[in-house]
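Sequence and structure are kept together here, with a separate record for every protein. An example record follows, reproduced without changes.
>
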Amino acid sequence: MYLLLSEERIGLRGAERTAVLLAASVALARLSKVLVEDPVRFRARWARGRTGAVALVAVFAALAALWAAVPQPRTGEGSVDVTRLVPDGG
């Protein structure tokens, strides 16, 4: 969510951006529960046999598309090199 809804993309900062991130996360979690988890858990017809295999392939295709759509993190000036972080001595 942080990569897809970056400050530059949605034009929000601080509490407003946090509220949008939380709302989007909760909405996607609910959608996942209703469309994926509950039907599989309650043994829906579509989750069995050939239809279940097609659904599984469709989910993997959607995940691959999402993976391709997520931008790579920016590096260089303005980014943090985590290998150079040291604990505070205090």
About this structure: The chain has a mean pLDDT of 83. Residues 46 and 52 are 5 Å apart (CA to CA). The chain has three helices and no strands.
